[in-house]
From TrEMBL:
Residues 25-137 form the Glycosyltransferase subfamily 4-like N-terminal domain. Transmembrane segments: none annotated. It comes from Pyrodictium occultum. Coiled coil: none annotated. It comes from the Archaea. Keywords: Transferase. This is Glycosyltransferase subfamily 4-like N-terminal domain-containing protein. InterPro entries: Glyco_trans_4-like_N. The keyword Transferase applies. GO terms for molecular function: glycosyltransferase activity. SUPFAM superfamilies: UDP-Glycosyltransferase/glycogen phosphorylase.
């Protein structure tokens, strides 16, 4: 079996962690900040020591692709680029500067991984030949061996879970206001997870909404994995909310893994992946979110069946793409 190493700088995505685990690969994660001097040096040292057959880079960051590409010729390994949305679509000047100059290096990769078909088409428009691009959906997360109920007031009814990274593309306030405008607060709570440190202003607004809602909205902060998994396993539904195209959020795959109804933003990407007739898509309006929540939780004619069929189709997409990736990596 070939020796495979995943490399990530600055921030480790759940996808990278789960892919490395599923493929039995090594994982090198280096916390560093621009200009990435320590990460640049440590990447060379670690790969010289490991001598892998192939290296998978988590993109962004662009300088990581440059570093691995320059090492590949000397160390003799293949380069696989796993292209996260931020490498292609920029929401800040920093993202543009740290990634756009390095996009041409994708042509030096032996294989480029896209997260969904729309992103694969975007890579094609950037000049990458289709035979070098492979769509690989996220592996389904495995529940930890032990679940632990968090010390939260979840009330006596059910709850809708919003797994949040608090990234700029997550419309958390829209989801919260849509929830309050729906019929759900009478029997459900909205539970928003994650460390809000990236968006303190949004956190203040959501805390105010939580107070005004008299406990209908619960902000958990960061949770250990056993507690987070407990929330997933007991949720009535899971929300995947984004304003960014070409993005397939981890929350969607968590809903698939735990067989929970998925409430999702009606971006072009999610509409294509889930299907235009999927009943739990919501447009970016308070009224649209409220209607999707009511429709998805109602158990109306055909809703449960459509949700179950979609979850099963996504499960097959995930496992099938991972099997294809494993076969291709063995042939690289």
């Amino acid at each position: 079996m070939k020796r495979l190493v995943f490399v990530a700088w600055a921030r480790l995505s759940r996808r990278t962690r789960d892919l490395a685990r599923a493929l039995g690969a090594g994982l090198l994660f280096l916390r560093d900040r621009p200009p990435y001097i320590r990460a640049w040096r440590e990447t060379a040292r670690a790969l010289e020591e490991a001598r892998p057959d192939a290296v998978v880079v988590q993109l962004p960051q662009g300088p990581l692709l440059l570093r691995v590409a320059t090492l590949a010729g000397r160390l003799g390994f293949r380069v696989v680029a796993d292209v996260h949305t931020g490498f292609l679509v920029y929401s800040s000047p920093a993202g543009l500067l740290l990634n756009r100059p390095f996009r041409g290096l994708l042509r030096r990769a032996d294989l480029v991984l896209a997260h969904n078909e729309p992103e694969a088409r975007l890579l094609g428009r950037a000049g990458l030949p289709g035979e070098r691009v492979l769509v690989v959906y996220d592996p389904l997360p495995r529940p930890p061996a032990r679940l632990e109920r968090p010390a939260l007031d979840l009330g006596d009814g059910g709850y809708i879970l919003v797994p949040a990274s608090w990234a700029p593309d997550e419309p958390l306030e829209l989801v919260a206001r849509g929830f309050l405008a729906s019929g759900a607060p009478g029997g459900y709570r909205l539970v928003v997870t994650g460390d809000p440190g990236r968006r303190p202003g949004l956190h203040r607004r959501l805390r105010r909404l939580a107070r005004e809602s008299r406990g209908s909205i619960v902000l958990t902060g960061f949770l250990p994995e056993p507690q987070y998994a407990w929330l997933l396993s007991h949720a009535a539904a899971v929300v995947a909310a984004t304003t960014r195209e070409y993005t397939m959020l981890s929350a969607a795959w968590e809903a698939v893994a735990y067989r929970k109804p998925l409430l999702a933003s009606a971006t072009g990407t999610l509409r294509e992946v889930l299907g235009p007739g999927y009943p739990c898509l919501f447009p970016p309006t308070v009224e649209g979110v409220a209607e999707a929540i009511d429709r998805c939780l109602s158990g109306g004619p055909g809703v449960a069946e459509a949700v179950e069929e979609t979850l099963e189709r996504l499960r097959r997409m995930s496992t099938g793409s991972l099997e294809r990736l494993a076969r291709i990596l063995e042939r690289l």
